[in-house]
Design brief:
By secondary structure, the chain is α/β, with parallel strands linked by helices. The protein has six helices and five strands, in the order αβαβαβαααββ. A five-stranded mixed beta sheet has the order 2-1-3-4-5, covered by helices on one side. The radius of gyration is 18 Å and the shape is globular. Bound molecules: zinc ion (ZN).
Length: 181
């Protein structure tokens, strides 16, 4: 039996309650709270729990560290392009980047571990050196600017940066929402 079995049980309960799927956004790329959250895959930082994000309220993208990578930039650009072309009156979702304390990405700061992983996946070690969230208040500022300065992303998209403390459970805003235009 698959590990997902208990969740499939919960899914049947969910599907049996049509009310749970009401109030969904008319356009899925303009969610109800106009938010596009980028956050780590760490199971302790699930936005549905730590921020109370409900169904239909936000686009949520997760990767190691919640870092702004070329793949994430491409997806943000795509959402901005959809708004430009399908709903030019907006609103444009705000990209809220959240880094957190005690992040597993910090293991990539270890030279030996980073070298071994770079060999394993056949990549340049320097690209991995950019990943660790050693100081979330600093890396989140770097990543806010990566989005604001990226080519191809609508300048109407506001970007904000935050840090989640896994010990206190509190989120602190480091960079208030701002757009590049
Ligand atoms: Zn993490």
């Amino acid at each position: 039996m698959s590990n997902i079995a208990p969740l499939l049980d919960r899914n049947r309960a969910f599907a049996g309650d049509p009310g749970a799927r009401q109030g969904m956004p008319r356009l899925p790329f303009i969610p109800n709270l106009n938010l596009y959250i980028v956050i780590c895959i760490d199971p302790r930082v699930d936005p549905a729990e730590i921020l109370g994000v409900r169904l239909g309220e936000a686009l949520v993208q997760r990767n190691i560290g919640g870092r702004i990578t070329p793949a994430i930039l491409r997806d943000i650009a795509y959402v901005g392009y959809l708004v430009d072309t399908k709903a030019p009156e907006g609103p444009y979702p705000e990209v809220a980047i959240i880094h957190h304390t005690d992040c597993g990405s910090t293991l990539l700061a270890d030279d030996e571990l980073r070298h071994g992983f770079a060999q394993r996946i056949g990549t340049d070690e320097r690209t991995l050196a950019d990943t660790p969230v050693l100081d979330p208040a600093r890396t989140v500022q770097t990543d806010v600017h990566r989005v604001l300065w990226a080519q191809g992303i609508s300048q109407k998209i506001p970007v904000s940066g935050h840090v989640y403390d896994v010990d206190t459970g509190l989120v602190t805003t480091i960079v208030d929402a701002k757009a590049s235009a």
